[in-house]
Design brief:
It contains twelve helices and ten strands. It is of the alpha/beta class and 314 residues long. It has one domain: pyruvate-formate lyase- activating enzyme. Strand 1 (7-10), helix 1 (21-29) and strand 2 form a beta-alpha-beta unit. Helix 5 (153-169) runs antiparallel to helix 6 (177-189). The protein is globular, with a radius of gyration of 20 Å. 32% of the residues are buried.
């Protein structure tokens, strides 16, 4: 917090398998915007642990049950993910759906997005990429797989254009215009117009408290050393080194890189202001429903004060 961090994202693996995850999330949510990723297998079992987080992102790649189970490598994963989405929404916990755009779903990602928009469930995206084999990287996410690599560039560009239009029509598309345009230009021309801002706009902390610029890079400090080394010559040298890296197109890293600095943060706030109002509105609605359930028939024709973000059952 002293370094200016405003957001913490818990991902994995699956962070919800930790027995103490509730305590960790409660502490984090008091100081930061807190997001938790889940593949749908644990969220329904950890409702109490998720009560105070800002977002729970459920990984779901397609509305085709068999295809999704194949992609995840686990039979029944689609049903569990859909049930987690339904239950989280029912409990008033801000849930978003997070598909990874790949060759498997590039032709259906727009319809997928519309499906959840109609149910007032936000969508934010990942983009299939693979790890560059840096020596001594912190951990690996995945290796290159020709099945996932997008071969139909025309379809991808059309999908990105459609998502840009959907952003204008709906508040439930949770990706910034600048991020989408950076990805689109990269796909169209092969040219990266952003510089990596690892160890500047974002960093990675593993379960041992080791810090790296990104998951593919080697650990360079412990979390306890950060206040002392953050502005050190060593870290300045590493930032210059990482800014020249062109080895990945992970959408999360693109987002934090194109929105670097104070101006980038302000742009995010402007871009996502409507989304923030939806979050507040949904939370207010949930509180109203809990406190005054017997009065629902008397207030259905009245507008509930704007104070929340979400949905209706799937």
């Amino acid at each position: 917090r002293d370094l200016g961090v405003i957001e913490i994202v818990f991902s994995g693996g699956n962070p919800l398998i930790r027995e103490d995850i509730g305590e960790i999330l409660d502490y984090a949510s008091k100081n930061f915007v807190t997001t938790v990723y889940d593949n749908g297998s644990m969220a329904a079992k950890k409702i109490d642990a998720l009560k105070n987080v800002d977002f729970v992102a459920i990984s779901l790649d397609t509305l085709d049950e068999k295809k999704n189970d194949y992609l995840k490598g686990v039979p029944g994963s689609w049903k569990r993910a859909m049930e987690s989405i339904r239950l989280l929404k029912e409990e008033g916990i801000p849930v978003v759906v997070s598909p990874t755009i790949s060759q498997f779903n590039v032709h259906e990602i727009v319809d997928f997005t519309r499906y959840f928009i109609k149910r007032s469930i936000p969508v934010w995206y990942c983009f299939y990429w693979y790890d560059y084999p840096f020596e001594d990287g912190m951990f690996k996410i995945g290796k290159k797989n020709d099945e996932y690599m997008i071969r139909d560039k025309k379809a991808l560009l059309e999908a990105l254009d459609s998502i840009l239009k959907l952003r204008e029509e709906s508040n439930y598309v949770y990706i910034t215009e600048r991020t989408l345009k950076a990805l689109r230009e990269f796909v169209a021309s092969g040219v990266r117009k952003w510089r990596c801002r690892a160890l500047d706009s974002f960093l990675i902390v593993d379960h041992l408290g080791r810090v790296a610029g990104c998951h593919s890079r080697e650990p360079v400090a412990s979390i306890f050393e950060l206040p002392e080394v953050w502005r050190s010559p060593k870290f300045e040298m590493l930032r210059r080194k990482y800014s020249q890296c062109t080895k990945c197109a992970y959408l999360c890293y693109i987002f934090y890189s194109v929105h670097a600095g104070l101006s980038g943060t302000l742009e995010i706030l402007r871009d996502q202001w409507k989304n923030a109002k939806i979050l507040l509105q949904e939370r207010a609605r949930k509180r109203n429903n809990i406190k005054r359930p017997r009065l629902r028939r008397n207030i259905t024709k009245k507008k509930i004060p704007l104070k929340s973000k979400m949905q209706q059952n799937i």
